[in-house]
Structure formats: structure tokens, C-alpha cells
Design a protein that fits this description.
InterPro entries: DUF1553 (IPR022655). This is DUF1553 domain-containing protein. The protein has eight helices and two strands. By secondary structure, it is mainly alpha-helical. It folds into three domains: 44 residues, no CATH class; 86 residues, no CATH class; 78 residues, no CATH class. A two-stranded antiparallel ribbon has the order 1-2. Helix 3 crosses helix 5. The longest helix is centred in the first third of the chain and has 22 residues.
Length: 260
């Protein structure tokens, strides 16, 4: 009897071990190779290697990257992007703050989201943008803290209704005297509809989910051909950020809302 019990325990442990091994994440590791020498090609002739040697760097007018080795690496570049002292961390924080403001208010403090240089539109509230950028850096680049600061502000919690006087004085809401009116992204439209219907599942994490879509929607999807098996139960009501994204074949609901 004891032997049978021990065998049963051993079998249970082996099954548990196999289950753990199957669920273990594997990390792909490749051996680093020595970067090849890159030269400027005289008149674009790739057979002519008489041009000067060039290395990874940033434009001279932006300064230089502090190297951790003989040559600049991607990590050096990433550190330079967020270094407010010896890099462009201040500019990075300003661009992020402006873009995040745009997501919550419908327009940026500077409407030139992709051009923050001299040819872009000057910010309507430069002191505010500077303060938000400094706070973002001092908070350790925490997006959660930054978002909390904005959504708890008086400016964000204003009504979007505007009086006739406000429309006359500031028709485009450049001074943010009221909350902006802007179109919600497709994922938010779906989430709001599910929330109003009491169906939204707010679980966090996990694999992508596949809500219902019409049969045959993937019929022209090749390389390889595949079928779409939608989820059942609460999985199909999870937030839009978890919806499966098939390149060039977005979910019909998202595509119908002019794409996410």
C-alpha cells in the first residue's frame, strides 16, 4: 500500500513538473557579432570603399552621445533620449506631455504634434508645458502619475458645453476654458458601449481575445489561409486593447469606426 502511495505521489510530481516545463518561457539568445565597418559611399558607388568611416551617432547640432564602450550602442541612444542633463530628455518629456495632453483634451498645448521645432506652432501655454515636463521627469517618467495629475485637474473635469460668449472669444478652445469635444478611438467606442450595457470585463493581462466577427471575413487572407474562432463567454467582452489585431484585416467593428 505504501509503495502504491509513493508511486502515485511520484507520478503526480512528474506530471506537475511537465506542466511547469511546458508553461516556462524561453528566451532566445544570439551571439553578438562584431559590427562591420561602414563608410560613406562616394557618389553612391557601393564598390568604392575609399570614403570616410562613419559610426552610429546623432546629428551634431543635437550634441553627442555619452558612450559606454568604444562605439555608441542602442542603449546609449536610449539613455541619451531620456537624459535631461547631457541628452535631450527635456525635449523628450515636452513632446510626450504635449501628446498625452492631446489624447485627453482633443488638441495639444502645441497643435504641432509631429514638429516641435521652430517651424511648429508655439505652445499656447508654454509655462504649463514646461511644468508638466519637469514633473514627468521628477516622477521617474511614470505615465500613471502623469495621467493621474491630468485627469484630476480642474481643466480636464470641465464640461465641454460652451456659452455663446466663450464660443465668440475662443471658438477653437485654444485657451482650454472648457473641455474639448473630439471623436473617441474605436476601442473606446466599443468599451463604452459594453460598459453602458453592463457587459464590460475589466480583467487585466492575458492573451488577446477574439470577439465575434462575420463568418468568411478572412476568406481572402492568405499565407497561410486561416479560420477565425471567436471566443465565448466573458472573454469576448474584455476591453478593446486586448482585441486580436490582424494586420490589413482589422476587426470589422474597429474598421467601421474608421480604425483604431
Amino acid at each position: 500500500l505504501n509503495t502504491t502511495k509513493q508511486d502515485h505521489e511520484r507520478l503526480s510530481l512528474e506530471l506537475e513538473r511537465e506542466s511547469l516545463l511546458k508553461s516556462k518561457r524561453l528566451v532566445m539568445i544570439t551571439k553578438s557579432i562584431e559590427p562591420r565597418e561602414i563608410r560613406v559611399l562616394p557618389r553612391g558607388n557601393w564598390l568604392d570603399d575609399s570614403g570616410p568611416v562613419v559610426e552610429a551617432a546623432v546629428p551634431d547640432f543635437l550634441g553627442s552621445i555619452r558612450r559606454d564602450g568604444d562605439r555608441a550602442s542602442r542603449l546609449d541612444f536610449a539613455n541619451w533620449l531620456v537624459d535631461p542633463e547631457d541628452g535631450v530628455g527635456g525635449l523628450t518629456a515636452r513632446v510626450f506631455a504635449n501628446r498625452f495632453w492631446y489624447l485627453l483634451f482633443g488638441r495639444g498645448i502645441s497643435s504641432s504634434l509631429t514638429d516641435f521645432g521652430g517651424q511648429g506652432e508655439p505652445p499656447s501655454h508654454p509655462e504649463l508645458l514646461d511644468q508638466l515636463s519637469v514633473d514627468f521627469i521628477n516622477d521617474g517618467w511614470s505615465v500613471k502619475r502623469f495621467m493621474r495629475r491630468l485627469v484630476l485637474s480642474h481643466g480636464y473635469r470641465q464640461s465641454s458645453n460652451a456659452s455663446s460668449e466663450a464660443k465668440q472669444n475662443d471658438p477653437y478652445n485654444r485657451w482650454f476654458a472648457r473641455q474639448g469635444r473630439y471623436r473617441l478611438p474605436a476601442e473606446m467606442v466599443r468599451d463604452n458601449a459594453l460598459a453602458i450595457g453592463g457587459l464590460l470585463v475589466a480583467d487585466i493581462g492575458g492573451p488577446s481575445v477574439k470577439p465575434y466577427q462575420p463568418v468568411g471575413y478572412y476568406r481572402h487572407l492568405n499565407f497561410p489561409k486561416r479560420a477565425y474562432a471567436w471566443d465565448i463567454g466573458k472573454q469576448q467582452y474584455r476591453r478593446g486593447v486586448y482585441v486580436h489585431w490582424q494586420r490589413q484585416y482589422l476587426h470589422p467593428m474597429l474598421k467601421g469606426e474608421f480604425r483604431p
